[in-house]
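Long-time lurker. I teach an intro course on protein structure, and each term I like to show students one example going from raw sequence to a predicted 3D structure in token notation. This year I'd like something fresh instead of my usual example. Would anyone be willing to generate the tokens for the chain below so I can use it in lecture? Attribution to the forum is fine with me.
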Amino acid sequence: MKFMLIVHHDEEAFNKIKKEKQQQMLAKSIELTHQLHAAGQYLTASPLQPAATAVMVRMREGKPLVTDGPFIETREQIAGYFLVNARNLKEAISIATRVPGARIGTVEVRTLTEITGLPNE
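-- Reply from a regular --
Happy to contribute to a lecture. Here you go:
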């Protein structure tokens, strides 16, 4: 089964962490991807640019409505993701506990819906 591990954290709080600590967290995330790859569980992962760089796209009455940034009522923003293979939810949760972002924020675990007809199948 494929699972998306969505890393959420407070960008303001993260930016207050010393750069050395931020680099250590990135190194640990990269190390985790290599561990997952060796176990045949790694599909892809990436941090995201700050939420302020995002745009939100909605279609209303056939017309696009594009606004700056995610204006949502939460202190945590989506900071990155891991896409992994796991036997079940329990194993995906076990992987999520190893994500460095879980120590300063939250890792949301979501099962992907497998559909046919997509490119590269």
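Some talking points for your students: The chain has one domain: 2-111. Residues 2-111 form a domain with the Alpha-Beta Plaits fold (CATH 3.30.70.1060).
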